[in-house]
Amino acid sequence: MSGFTDAVLTARRRKGGRPTRPAGPMQRREARWGYAFISPWIIGFLLFWLVPIGASLVFSTLDFQLTDPDATSFVGTSNWERALSDPDTWTALAATFRFTVLFLPLSIVVALGLALLLNSKHLKFTGFFRLLFYAPSMIPLVAGVLIWQQVLNPQTGWVNRLIGLTGVDATGTDGIRWFDNPILVLFAFSFIGLWGIGNAMMVNLAGLQGIPTELYEAAEIDGAGWWRRLRSVTLPLLSPIMFYNLVIGSVAILQYFVVPWVLFGATGRPGGASRFLLVHFYQQAFVFGDMGYGAALAWLIFILVAVFTAVLFGTSRYWVHYGTERS
Amino acid sequence: MTATATAPHTEAAETPPAEKAMRRKRRGITMTIVTTLGALLLAVVFLMPLGYGAATALKDKDGVSDPNAAVLPVSALTFEYEGEVHDVYAVPMPDGTTRDLALIEPGRESSTFVDPEDPGAGPIEWDGRWRTLEPVTGLNPQWGNFEEAWNTISFLRLTGWTLMYALVSMALTVVSSAVVAYGFARFRFPGRGLLFGLLMATILLPPAVTLVPKYAVFLQMGWVGTYLPLIVPQLFANAFNVFLLRQYFLTIPRELEEAARIDGAGPIRTFLRVIIPQSVPALTAVSLFHFFYAWNDFFEPLLYLAGNREIVPIGVGLSYFSGVYNSEPHLILAASLLALALPVAIFLAAQRVFVQGIVVTGVDK
């Protein structure tokens, strides 16, 4: 099903499980060629991942200011203590948490809903609709953000003017100010986010098309209605793909940056709602040049992502369904 | 049928099979119409901001900021007559008709107009107070907004740098990723499973955790303010691309390589002569994925090019522009539409390859 989760899970399962073969000259030659082919990645992994991650940990113990690198000194855990007592860190964690709670379920449901719609035997012009729903994903994110910023303009944007048609005073001074309210702005972020739903939708659709129709026929003979078929056939068989979308989606939210940055820069407006973790990190490390503190914040993000994915992978065995037995 | 049967059952039993089939067919048609219309409505709502963007990008400045302005770019019509611009009014004529005329000489009790359709017919005298007349409005798209946005953001310069970045990094990452993917797909070596797991893990690792030391080193090397920190890492393969290409390489029958080997080809020649020609669809898909990824890339260009505004790619350029021109939304929207035109056009042209790439591999970038 989802090749990505397969690969991760298979890699995990294989660890230490394979019997070692006696290495003859042929095998040694094959292994040498294998290492040669993957060597660019190994070098890149060391240079751009492993060493920098370790160095970040070292940097997080230093007082290292970009404006005055010569005055760098060792400060022990004080950057870490500061990171945990900085009110901005907690604002960022709260903003990330609130947005995750709203957008992650929303995006997963919408991506699944659109895929179900596109897979429906009742839908005509499937290719055309697939194109329409996918197209916004191709719009450069900054351009999309700027368009939405105007569409959600309280006075002149179409969204409020449409709401105004229903009799609600949306465009007035007490109207719906999408970018001035810490809760409403999460919906603005969500609208922009839904424009990027295309990839998740396509992956879901590919998964749906891979479900054998006999299963649905059998369920129908057993008298299962639409809802029952969705719950008992579609969702279990789609769960590896839903799992993939969930992992990618939550890792992306923990590193949410472009949309809040383009709309609000490092101001955190409204009321801290746009101060996401990466905005906080970018401001401290590269706007203020406090690289030691920035490194501590970056490690905090790293730990959060690691814990989050570990929890997701750990719980996956209870709800991700791998139908076929694998050798 | 017994009397205990419920009403629908009775009805179903009494209906002849032909009629039942007809009814089912009719229900199917209704479902198709409802579903398709529903999808159309959903698509209209989903794409509404684009319509708004297009309509607003063509408005003049007054039309953008007026909350009661018409939806389309409408403004009061004017007419140029003998070198001067005059407003156009709906003028009720003595014969009972109303004509759209340009006011060239206003007077208290009578004014002089000219017909914009037929200025050669000369001035028309009209008795009445011109202030009671209604100005004529009409569709008046400001195509000049696009020209102004094009010039203000230096669209060609931004696009040029973005294209350079996208194409160079695409070439480097596709070549290096294909090499690495072949290594993982075809050779057995100790630690392969572990290394592949590590490779996959880098998809989930937050790049932020590497940025501080990388930035410090690139700054030391004098690379900050150039594209080098963005391009050089592409030489060392990218986990997503390796994964996609490996999946594809695994589907190529081994017999083809065996034949090449019997002919005396080494692994490099086999890779170049057998694997690469067989993998054009996958290589194209990966190239496209990376192209769009680079076109959209924001964080790292923002970081590494911060000191050099002249060479930023289009996403960063747009964000600078919107910060400065936030009182001119029509220009921001025109610039945004310009910025999305090229990637969307490429996508529409290549969508078959693109969609297949997502579907075949079951994964996206």
TrEMBL record, chain A:
The chain crosses the membrane at residues 35-59, 97-119, 131-151, 183-206, 237-258, 296-320. One of its GO terms (cellular component) is plasma membrane. Keywords: Cell membrane, Membrane, Transmembrane, Transmembrane helix, Transport. It is found in: Cell membrane. InterPro entries: ABC_transporter_permease (IPR051393), MetI-like (IPR000515), MetI-like_sf (IPR035906). Residues 93-312 form the ABC transmembrane type-1 domain. CDD domains: TM_PBP2 (cd06261). Its main location: membrane. Pfam families: BPD_transp_1 (PF00528). It is a multi-pass membrane protein. GO terms for biological process: transmembrane transport. PANTHER family: ABC TRANSPORTER PERMEASE PROTEIN, ABC TRANSPORTER PERMEASE PROTEIN YESP-RELATED. Belongs to the binding-protein-dependent transport system permease family. This is Carbohydrate ABC transporter membrane protein 1, CUT1 family.
Automatic annotation (TrEMBL), chain B:
Keywords: Cell membrane, Membrane, Transmembrane, Transmembrane helix, Transport. The chain crosses the membrane at residues 29-52, 163-182, 194-215, 227-249, 270-295, 331-350. It is found in: Cell membrane. Residues 159-350 form the ABC transmembrane type-1 domain. GO terms for cellular component: plasma membrane. Residues 1-24 are annotated as: Disordered. Its main location: membrane. Residues 1-19 have a biased composition (Low complexity). It is a multi-pass membrane protein. It holds the Pfam family BPD_transp_1. GO terms for biological process: transmembrane transport. It comes from the Bacteria. Belongs to the binding-protein-dependent transport system permease family. This is Carbohydrate ABC transporter membrane protein 2, CUT1 family. It comes from Glycomyces sambucus.
